[in-house]
Amino acid sequence: MIFPRVARLALLVLFAIALPGAARAGGDISFEREYRRIIEVENQVMAQPAYQESKDLIDQIGQAREYLSSVEKRYEEAAATDGPEPIYSREVAKIQARLNRLERRLAELTKTLKDVREAAEGASGGRIFGRAANRTAVFTYEDPQATGLGDAVAYLISKKLLFTSPVQSFAVVNFRGEQLETPVGPDRASRSPTYFDKVDLVTQNQNFGLAVWGRITRAGAGISIDSFLQVPASASREKLGADIRLPKAMGGATLSAHLKSDRVLVSTTDLEKSSAENLKRAARQVSSLRRQPKASAAVVAKLEGLYRIVGRSGSWVELQLSDGRRGWTSVDEFCSDECAFLLKAADFTNDILAQTAGAGPRRLPEGFTRDAEEMSKEFATLRLLQDQPEKAADLAESWIKNSKTRHPKFESLLALARLQIALKRETARGRSYEDIRLEPQVLQPIVDTLVEASIANPSDDELLRNLAKLFNVLGDSARADLASQLADRVVH
Amino acid sequence: MLELKITDGVAEPIKDLELFPSGILECKLKAEHSVIIGNFLPPTPAGGLSELSRRIARSLEFALRTRLQSAHLTLNKQPSFVPCEAAKPPTTRFGSGYAKALDADAFVDGDISRDRRLPGYAVNFYVSDAYGLFSDPQLARNRSLNLETPSEVEVSDETHVAVLASIAAGLARKDDCVTAIKVITVAERFLEQPGDNPIPAGFEYLAGLRKSCEVRLPNVNLRKNTQ
Question: What is the pLDDT of residues B155-190, one digit of tens each?
């Protein structure tokens, strides 16, 4: 029976690769298998001599940079008192040359390791629906108290996401598997990754834009279900940020701001114990493909593996499986009341997706956490930053005013919005953008706000890099260097 | 546990001499950060209230671990929540000494009573820290808790905030104010919700802790009036 298995696998791979760019597709695969596959690939990479050499090089480069900065400081001090001393400039040139050599070697090794990783990835499967422009992963909900609902909840949310997606070229992969045993890699001997870390690893390896997962706990006589939206660091770069390029007269540097809310508790659903069975039943019903778009129609196939949407009728969708079979199913038909409330996590995720595709922000309905509201507001502020900085400033300011504690990410966004407003004002006066040079009395309060935000959240390296650039505009090289050094020291 | 210090044959004065039951040393962990959940004095009669320390430890872990992870706290900085039924300080004032003796950031204990007019139990949680953040244990009152369902005990936000502040104080003590501020931020989130009311009185210690951490950051040298 080897041939049918091989043929089935080939069909699946073909289906995942050949998906048309504008299609909406989904898949249900094993979380554990995918996680192990990635760990095995990483183990292969880490077994390479180039891996250890590159780690040593990173240390050496760090030390060389620190030494260079201390020599430069001594040079500046000596120059201030006794005039420039050639011995320092020779030393600086020597360290710089060594630094360049180390960095060149590191680039070579990084390329080698990338090739090894790609070869290993290719041999072990690679990306699922890699051609889809918008890819979201839904992971089985962590279920430490063994309620048995982890897969059912994730299944329903993944289908709701797919069936109501607001964007074209969309794929949702549902990673199943109630109990994920963690394999240990060579670098991980002494620590066991958290669920967030496991989700991060798979999400980043597969390059998903967003990930939804959650946690189920018993609460008194009922069950409590938390849903999280996770934005991998790799994904937030392109679609979830905004840039402000300074005019050439101010150095021409680019200031960046990206979504900081990246692990957000979106909603909490409390269910009676009796509702748990309803969730499982709803998941079973959704997984049954029917001949026609109605609940009483005959079941023709089970929804599993990879599939794509080929038709719609009301809340029903027609799906085609990778082996060519077709059938109808619906989430809304089988998941109502408390079950429907659970699907709010899918609505929120689709809302964020719609905004990445250009839709305007909308007011969040009741039932979401304050963290979800904060993420939504932060994203809306980012989207407005470049073209409508006045509105961005209003949003950031109102969030700060209505909060009881510090919110440095909004303070930082407010400062950037004010900078953009000042630049826009100068342009409106008829000045050429590249010639604008804001007066220090305009720039300094913006810098002061960013400094206070960096003290309130010292882990924000992006904010520190923005500060370094603005200190350079103000001609304050000492603080620019300090901001850069602090940014380099931030550990993610 | 008794510590005596003899220098040059002369016994030095010993402050805060406390004796701890030998059983509690088994609760000592090698983790960098830990919170010990001691004994909760049961009502009379105790009824079906068993393993409360373990259940409360689990509840704290469920409530706080994920929040700390969502703030990107690395694994070695995340606290362990250790149940320790044997830890029965004679009065709540001794909680801080227990935290120190067990190398923990915080010690949580409490007492349970029953008001027959209300459903469930009233539970007082006392949170003591090892670093002198609280001059007296922080008291959080939880009314109408259902303690008879073995699966879960709900712990109030006041308790969560005090425990998180103790962990942050431990990080600050180890000169890791960057991580301490991450933990303080998680604690502040509990104070944000729900409603539009201002932060209730009694949480000034959190703002004080934040301030004491912020002034120790090298980032303060970015201010205009420094250097």
Answer: 888 899 999 999 999 999 999 999 999 999 999 998
- Structure confidence at residue A189 (pLDDT): 34
The burial of A372, by beta-carbon neighbours within 10 Å (0-12 exposed, 13-18 middle, 19 or more buried), is given as buried
What is the per-residue pLDDT across B34-89, written as a single tens digit (0 to 9) for each? 999 999 888 876 666 677 888 888 888 888 988 898 898 888 888 999 999 889 88
What's the whole-model pTM score? 0.81
Phi, psi angles (nearest 5°) of residue A91 = -65, -45
A456: chain B residues, CB-CB within 8 Å: 181, 214
- Does B214 sit within 8 Å of A456, measured CB to CB? yes
Q: How far is CA A65 from the centre of its chain?
A: 30
Contact A403 B199 (CB under 8 A): no
Cis omega (within 30 of 0) for bond into A293: no
Q: Could you tell me which of B116, B194, B123 has the C-alpha nearest to residue B153? A: B123
Quote the pLDDT of residue A156.
95
Confidence check on the interface: ipTM exceeds 0.95, yes or no: no
C-alpha atoms less than 13 angstroms from C-alpha of B207 in its C-beta half-sphere? 10
Query: A445-467: per-residue pLDDT in tens?
Result: 999 999 999 999 999 999 999 99
Q: Give me the architecture of the A385-491 domain, per CATH.
A: Alpha Horseshoe (1.25)
Q: Under a CB-based contact definition with an 8 Å cutoff, are residues A427 and A407 in contact?
A: no
Flag if B222 and A467 touch (Cβ within 8 Å): yes
**Could you give the CA distance from residue A165 to residue A29 in angstroms, rounded to a whole number?**
20
Upper half-sphere CA count for residue B98 (Cβ side, 13 Å)? 33
- Pull the structure tokens for residue B23: 């059983």
Higher confidence at residue A491 or residue A58?
A58
Residue A289 contacts residue A299 (beta carbons within 8 Å): yes
Q: Which chain B residue has the Cα nearest residue A400?
A: B192
**Helical (H) or strand (E) element with B59:** helix B52-70
Taking the Cβ of residue A459 and every Cβ of chain B, the question of whether any pair is shorter than 8 Å is answered with yes
Beta strands in B61-182 (DSSP E): 80-83, 106-113, 121-129, 138-145
Between CA A28 and CA A37, with CA A34 as vertex, the angle to 5 degrees is: 155
* Per-domain boundaries in chain A: 5-121, 385-491
Task: Label each residue of A53-84 as H, E or C.
Answer: HHHHHHHHHHHHHHHHHHHHHHHHHHHHHHCC
User: Who among A144, A228, A458 is closest to B178 (CB)?
Assistant: A458
